[in-house]
Design brief:
This protein is α/β, with parallel strands linked by helices and 155 residues long. The chain is built from six helices and five strands. The chain is globular.
Length: 155
């Protein structure tokens, strides 16, 4: 469900840009291998389901969505390498990263390049607090912050 929301939001942002014939590539970054691979598999399957549903209806302005999967294993150093690969490939939208420990360092790479990052799972407040303090408007989360979860669950 979160992947559908992420892709839908990105599509809305892309609707304002000129249509081109080539595919739209979205990066899905998360732990595709290692001890947290089940989270990465959920990311991958959700994003693929959303892309398939959109593509079946003609895509976005006639362009098909293509996914580029990137494995960071929820490791901060690998996340920065993944972010640099995504940016170097010219991809403008990232669904990920899963772990706050990987999202926070990767966000600096995305912020510098203007790449939209929407994390569906990172909950550490530092991610968006730092982004806001630095004026990074392209770093977002879809998951409740750690400091707000308790108040929501047990008022």
């Amino acid at each position: 469900m979160k992947s559908i929301l992420i892709i839908s939001t990105a599509i809305g942002l892309l609707m304002g840009s000129a249509a081109r014939a080539e595919d739209l590539t979205f990066a899905v970054a998360g732990p595709l291998t290692g001890p947290l691979a089940t989270i990465g598999d959920q990311f991958k399957q959700g994003a693929q389901a959303a892309a398939d549903a959109i593509n079946a209806k003609g895509g976005v302005l006639g362009r098909q969505i293509k996914l580029q999967l990137e494995d960071d294993q929820c490791d901060p150093k690998q996340a920065v390498s993944v972010a640099n690969r995504i940016v170097a490939a010219g991809i403008q939208f990232v669904d990920g990263h899963a772990c706050s420990g990987s999202s926070i360092p990767a966000s600096a790479v995305y912020a510098e390049s203007g790449t939209l990052m929407m994390s569906p799972a990172s909950s550490n407040p530092v991610m968006t607090d730092d982004a806001a303090a630095k004026g990074w408007t392209n770093i977002m989360r879809l998951y409740t912050r750690d400091d707000a979860q308790g108040a929501f669950i047990g008022p």
